[in-house]
């Protein structure tokens, strides 16, 4: 898999199509695994989509006492293996980004798996395939690099300079979720 | 203890050694000094020993994982605390009954799956209990007079039963009953694996399908043996019993290393009510930022400990850890960091500041640049005060 998930929070229009699409994905049991939330409700109605980063060294898997969270060869961090998960929710609290969800009834953790059956064949995950404003995109790694460069160039044109020790001043507000 | 440990290659080999010694000792007692040993079962016996060693090795390597180690350590600490006695007993009892005996949570995942798992689980546990009981000689039958049998458990005479009573029939057919349970369950499971497209997404042949076919082979040949000697007067019986023995040996050796290993680690589920969440869905620790209860103090301490032991540095600039915040706040922190609008700084009612100076207009209104400049000034004033 050489494609990456590419999020631009400020593009989100809050339509929640990605949530609906996630519910439709095979094996998701009609429950969404991604989030759309308000950045700061008091100031504006700006929302952001949130997915799992598919970390290289996932904290969620490291804190799981049952060793239930597996990583595929493509680097996708899967939901808990149903037979192993003991339902302790350590993964939910260990994840730096608050991603894993927990089903108390069925006593198991479930989380974004980048629609593994789709993305392993290089098909865009459900959320990326429906997002109307391209806040979530499933693109080539090279395309992502190109977008980042463009963004930087725009900043230079607008006269913004990177601050010392602060690359975010320079390459702001976006990042990729990718596996290689 | 330390001295003893050094006599062995590793802790794991020490435990394996003791497990084997214990098993031999129990055999010695059960078979009254090896007098009642059943030589026909020798193949099963040797593979059972391998099974025991495999299980010990797997258990040890599982316990070495920092996460497992931490949770087990806390469980033992809590079990020893007198004040928690009531909670301990209650957690063990409810987990054992609802989670392990009834397997309620699997029925919640679907009635079909519940029945299938229940049949396989209890069929397997029953079969294992009978097989081990007989191979290690923990249990055997004695004829005390022509139509009365007595069950001898560990060399101690127990129940007396008429040789052809209903209870006796049930005891003789114990393995057939459990095998039938497994057979039905396994066929249900294989059907599900073939039909459901959802499970195919992450299913792996060697991990998810092999154990099912293995169980099918074991129960199939086992039940065939019964059919052969009851209806066909033992035709092909010796060959079939050899085939059956081979399947069982493979199962016993495979067990500790594959999917079926989830059985011995399941009791860890007790740790959840024991250490973390006493009542389901009732949280006690409040989020550092929004004050919503989201976990318990002990759990967050454990999570921090486990992450620390594995060199994860999730400490923020203000000394708090990411796990001190509820998942919703953690998601927000991530976005706010990206957009350079971290909430703890400044007045939350002030306008949002972004890195690139492009502002999100509030409710569709375009604001004057001065509005934002004012906010920046009030921010810096605040910082001075701090
Ligand atoms: S809830 Fe399940 S997957 Fe998460 S840490 Fe606990 S056992 Fe592991
Ligand atoms: S759940 Fe969290 S820790 Fe695990 S891979 Fe996703 S972002 Fe990383």
TrEMBL record, chain A:
The keyword Glycoprotein does not apply. Residues 3-33, 43-74, 76-105 form the 4Fe-4S ferredoxin-type domain. Keywords: 4Fe-4S, Electron transport, Iron, Iron-sulfur, Metal-binding, Repeat, Transport. Pfam families: Fer4_11 (PF13247). The keyword Cell wall biogenesis/degradation does not apply. One of its GO terms (molecular function) is metal ion binding. InterPro entries: 4Fe4S_Fe-S-bd, 4Fe4S_Fe_S_CS, ET_IronSulfur_Cluster-Binding. PANTHER family: ANAEROBIC DIMETHYL SULFOXIDE REDUCTASE CHAIN B-RELATED, PROTEIN NRFC. This is 4Fe-4S ferredoxin.
TrEMBL record, chain B:
Gene3D superfamilies: Transmembrane di-heme cytochromes, Chain C (1.20.950.20). InterPro entries: NarG-like_sf. It comes from Exobacillus caeni. Keywords: Membrane, Transmembrane, Transmembrane helix. The chain crosses the membrane at residues 12-29, 41-64, 118-139, 170-191, 212-232, 238-257. This is Respiratory nitrate reductase subunit gamma. It comes from the Bacteria.
């Amino acid at each position: 898999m050489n494609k990456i998930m590419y999020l631009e929070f400020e593009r989100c229009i809050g339509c929640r199509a990605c949530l609906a699409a996630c519910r439709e994905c095979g094996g998701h049991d009609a429950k969404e695994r991604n989030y759309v939330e308000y950045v700061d409700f008091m100031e504006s109605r700006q929302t952001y989509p949130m997915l799992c980063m598919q970390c290289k060294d996932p904290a969620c898997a490291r804190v799981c006492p049952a060793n239930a969270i597996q990583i595929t060869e493509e680097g996708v961090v899967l939901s808990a293996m149903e037979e192993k998960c003991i339902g302790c929710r350590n993964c939910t609290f260990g994840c730096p980004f608050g991603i894993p969800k927990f089903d108390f009834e069925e006593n198991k953790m479930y989380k974004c798996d980048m629609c593994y059956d789709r993305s392993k064949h290089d098909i865009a995950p459900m959320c990326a395939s429906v997002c109307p404003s391209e806040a979530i995109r499933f693109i080539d790694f090279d395309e992502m690099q190109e977008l980042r460069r463009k963004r930087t160039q725009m900043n230079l044109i607008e006269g913004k300079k990177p601050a010392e020790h602060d690359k975010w001043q320079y390459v702001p507000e976006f990042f990729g979720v990718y596996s290689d | 203890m330390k001295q003893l440990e050094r006599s062995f290659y590793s802790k794991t080999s020490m435990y394996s050694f003791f497990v084997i010694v214990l098993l031999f000792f129990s055999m010695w007692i059960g078979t009254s000094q090896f007098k009642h040993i059943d030589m026909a079962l020798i193949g099963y016996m040797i593979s059972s020993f391998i099974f025991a060693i495999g299980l010990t090795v797997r258990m040890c390597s599982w316990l070495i994982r920092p996460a497992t180690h931490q949770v087990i350590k806390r469980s033992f600490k809590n079990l020893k605390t007198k004040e928690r006695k009531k909670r301990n007993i209650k957690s063990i009892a409810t987990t054992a009954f609802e989670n392990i005996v009834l397997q309620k949570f699997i029925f919640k995942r679907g009635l079909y799956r519940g029945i299938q798992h229940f049949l396989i689980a209890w069929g397997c546990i029953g079969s294992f209990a009978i097989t081990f009981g007989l191979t290690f000689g923990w249990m055997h039958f004695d004829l005390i007079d022509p139509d009365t049998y007595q069950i001898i458990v560990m060399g101690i005479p127990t129940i007396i039963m008429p040789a052809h009573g209903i209870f006796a029939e049930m005891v003789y057919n114990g393995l057939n009953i459990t095998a039938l349970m497994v057979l039905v369950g396994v066929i249900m499971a294989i059907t599900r694996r073939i039909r459901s497209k959802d499970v195919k997404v992450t299913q792996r042949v060697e991990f998810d399908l092999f154990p099912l076919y293995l169980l099918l082979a074991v129960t199939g040949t086992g039940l065939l043996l019964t059919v052969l000697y009851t209806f066909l007067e033992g035709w092909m019986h010796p060959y079939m019993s050899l085939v059956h023995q081979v399947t069982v040996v493979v199962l016993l050796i495979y067990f500790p290393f594959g999917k079926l290993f989830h059985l011995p680690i399941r009791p860890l589920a007790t740790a959840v009510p024991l250490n973390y969440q006493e009542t389901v869905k009732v949280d006690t620790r409040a989020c550092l930022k929004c004050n919503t209860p989201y976990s318990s103090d002990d759990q967050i301490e454990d999570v921090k400990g486990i992450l620390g032991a594995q060199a994860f540095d999730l400490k923020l600039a203000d000394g708090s850890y990411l796990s001190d915040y509820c998942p919703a706040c953690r998601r927000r922190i991530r976005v706010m960091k990206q957009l350079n609008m971290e909430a703890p700084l400044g007045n939350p009612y002030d306008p949002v500041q972004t890195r690139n100076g492009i502002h999100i207009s509030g409710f569709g209104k375009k604001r004057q640049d001065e509005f934002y400049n004012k906010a920046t000034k009030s921010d810096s004033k605040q910082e001075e005060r701090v």
